[in-house]
Specification:
The protein has 534 residues and is an alpha/beta fold. A 6-stranded parallel sheet has the order 2-1-3-4-5-6, sandwiched between helices. It has a 6-stranded parallel sheet with strand order 9-8-7-10-11-12, sandwiched between helices.
Length: 534
């Protein structure tokens, strides 16, 4: 029997923003193709380390893991020429995926530095893959050899059921989500004054409500609610531009809306025809064209649902990363920089990637960005499924996001691993740690032993998930009196009668433990416990 093939490795250098980022759109499909994928939260790390420190850390990651491809998102990657050459010397191909080029290229052009910037990018990267044909044309006219077009793609995992299955939720309003930039306010004001029923959500729109007569207006939506409203909308208005500037920019949301099975009308742009024909995704170049298109879509919904269905089928067939990733690798060959022969990664002596990803997760927790913290912890758990720190962090973050069933599952696993791996002298001590500022890493209770906080969170998560029987069984795990009273001191009775009964049982057990084993801080709460117990 032959040896198992050595898997290729991708180091993806971008943000870990859970509201929408390249790692979520690309990683599942590239893994499905047999690649190993690690994500580097570059836009978060820059603020912790600075550009120079980030470059040193990235070099350590590449040295330890030896990826075949490092995929960056310029100009946010902060790579210097010296750093790029050191990474390339390890056999890694450096690939840029420039999906903001319609935003940044005009600025470089007007300031006169575009030729110099293009030469620098051409030297930094083996391949500069841009979603903008115009940007590639400009770069090639300036003599760049490594610029090629690579269109947007999305994970082929469907985001939801098709629109046809969500027909009953539609309410007859066109839907727009995005920030209230001036040109968008002017555009949608005309649409509203024309009598088209609208639902408009995003940062700044509540202050503009008076300019949109008859429209439903609200703040920025959480992602889960945006997904639900997009699925239900009879027609979605595509967003263009960034911070008040219009570029005819194709965004990833074009594919996301298509995969949700919703009909959309998008701002016309030179690149849009490379994704969908006009029959499947509508276009507009003016307010008048948008108003006409919206009226048609609202009047003939069944026809436009069929069009949306075709767009969804095309997105799944042509615009998944399972298809786009081989295309991007072929572009590397086209520019004369094919992948090197696969090689085993060196034996690691420490792991810069996992330690820094943990740091970003704890920093995100401290700043109450639970979604980012959860995304970091889930990436860690892909490679370290038994890490008690990552399991505990995933549980805390899921709890903060209201994902109580998920939180209880992570916390149960964290407690199992903690009992096996944590030093006994810290596990059995229930003292509080000193220190000011926001807590991170060890949780919010600042206890030397992490177990009480994890038990408390798991108990509350089970109760909020209406799993009262499981919560009652959890009380039996609190055999140590000090652990029992410490957990009781971390929770507040809440919820239904069934939930209150579990809290009452916990507090009754804590009160019974008081004469023998109790900490001074918890003793002060005994009156509160007694009131719940009756």
């Amino acid at each position: 029997m032959g040896a198992e093939p050595i898997p290729r490795r991708l180091l993806l250098c971008e943000t870990l923003d859970p509201e929408g980022a390249l790692f979520a759109w690309l990683s599942p499909d590239v893994r499905a193709l047999g690649w190993q994928v690690r994500v580097v939260p570059s836009q978060e790390l820059i603020h912790l380390l600075g550009p120079e420190g980030f470059q040193r850390w990235l070099s350590a990651c590449v040295e330890a893991w030896r990826p075949d491809v490092l995929l960056c998102h310029p100009p946010y990657d902060h790579l210097s020429q010296e750093c790029a050459e050191s990474l390339r010397a390890r056999g890694t191909r450096l690939v840029a995926f420039g999906f903001d080029d319609p935003i940044v290229f005009p600025g470089w052009w007007t300031t006169g530095c575009l030729p110099e910037v293009v030469r620098e990018l051409d030297q930094l990267f083996d391949l500069y893959a841009s979603t903008s044909q115009e940007a590639v044309d400009q770069a090639q006219e300036l003599g760049a050899r490594g610029f090629r077009v690579c269109r947007w793609a999305f994970s082929s995992e469907p985001l939801s059921t098709p629109q046809e299955e969500a027909e009953g939720a539609a309410d007859g309003r066109a839907f727009f989500a995005g920030s209230a930039y001036p040109e968008r306010v002017a555009l949608l004001s005309e649409v509203a004054r024309a009598g088209v029923p609208l639902r408009v959500y995003g940062q700044g729109w509540t202050e503009q409500a008076a300019r949109l007569p008859g429209a439903e207006v609200g703040p920025r939506l959480p992602r889960t609610e945006w997904l639900a409203r997009t699925r239900a909308a009879p027609v979605v208005i595509g967003a263009d531009g960034w911070e008040g500037q219009g570029f005819g920019l194709v965004k990833a949301r074009l594919l996301e809306v298509a995969l949700l099975g919703s009909y959309q009308i998008s701002p016309a742009s030179p690149d849009l025809d490379g994704y969908f024909p006009a029959e499947e995704v509508g276009r507009f170049r003016s307010a008048a064209e948008l108003i006409d298109g919206l009226r048609q879509a609202l009047a003939r919904r069944r026809e436009h649902r069929r069009r949306a269905g075709k767009a969804r089928e095309r997105a799944l067939r042509e615009h998944s990363w399972q298809r786009r990733w081989p295309e991007l690798l072929a572009l590397l060959e086209d520019v004369g920089r094919p992948l090197a022969e696969p090689g085993e990664p060196p034996q690691r002596r420490g792991d810069a990637w996992s330690s820094m990803l943990s740091s970003v997760a704890h920093q995100a927790e401290a700043s109450e960005r639970a979604g980012l913290a959860r995304a970091c912890q889930l990436e860690l758990l892909r490679e370290q499924p038994d890490s008690p720190g990552a399991l505990a962090g995933a549980g805390r973050s899921a709890f903060s996001l209201g994902r109580h069933v998920e939180a209880a599952r992570w916390l149960a696993r964290a407690l199992q691993q903690l009992a096996r791996m944590q030093a006994r002298h810290s596990r059995e001590s229930y003292l509080r740690l000193q220190g000011g500022g926001p807590a991170r890493g060890m949780g919010v209770a600042r206890l030397l032993s992490q177990a009480p906080e994890l038990y408390a969170l798991r108990l509350v998560a089970l109760l909020r998930a209406e799993q009262c029987a499981e919560a009652q069984l959890l009380l039996d795990e609190l055999a140590c009196p000090d652990l029992l009273v410490t957990v009781a001191g971390l929770v507040q009775a809440e919820g239904s009668a069934g939930q209150q009964a579990v809290y009452a049982e916990l507090f009754a057990r804590a009160l019974a433990a008081l004469p023998q084993r109790q900490l001074e801080l918890q003793r002060q709460q005994s009156d509160r416990w007694q009131s719940v117990c009756g």
